[in-house]
Amino acid sequence: MTFRNAKLFGTVVNWDDIPQTQLRPGVRRRVYATDEVLIAHHELEVGMALNPHRHDDFDQLVFIASGLCDYYVEGVPHRMRAGSFLLVPRGAEHYVEPIEAPCVNIDVFVPPRADFASSLEWIDEL
């Protein structure tokens, strides 16, 4: 396990400082994490390919920072706008469909997701 808190205490980091990864057409992600929590910043384009999926090991807290979208949980759409939160329970199929851009979706995971570890290499360079 890599410990991050020691490098991050007292360090200001802006989203623009974090490397961005193109996940698929229309979806870009930046990731920030401490030893206890991970935050994923997604920039989503209207018309992007949808990606229904589920996480069996953790809940997902969704925050829409800008734009407008329908966030589907178990096939039920939830209209979300800037400032909206939604808690997706573990095991529930979910996906987001942007309606108005720029749509920024910020996800919070506790504990940090191990499968996002490669997105955190920038912290080692601090």
Q: Major beta sheet, specifics?
A: 7 strands, antiparallel
Mean pLDDT: 95
The number of distinct structural domains comes to 1
Supply the helix-strand structural class: mainly beta
Distance between the termini: 18 Å
Strand content: over 45%
Looking at CATH, the homologous superfamily is: Jelly Rolls
Overview of the molecule:
With 126 residues, this protein is mainly β. It has one domain (5-124): Jelly Rolls (Sandwich), CATH 2.60.120.10. The protein is 6% helix and 46% strand. The protein contains two helices and seven strands. The protein has helices at 5-8, 121-124; strands at residues 21-24, 27-33, 38-44, 60-73, 76-81, 85-88, 94-109. Strands 1, 2, 3, 4, 5, 6 and 7 form a seven-stranded antiparallel β-sheet that branches. β1 (21-24) and β2 (27-33) form a beta hairpin. It is globular, with a radius of gyration of 15 Å. The relative contact order is 0.26.
Properties at a glance:
single chain, 126 residues, 6% helix, globular, 46% strand, seven-stranded antiparallel β-sheet, 7 strands, Jelly Rolls, mainly beta
SSE blueprint:
Blueprint lengths: L4 H4 L12 E4 L2 E7 L4 E7 L15 E14 L2 E6 L3 E4 L5 E16 L11 H4 L2
Antiparallel strand pairs: 1-2, 2-3, 3-7, 4-5, 4-6, 4-7
Quick take:
By secondary structure, the chain is mainly β.
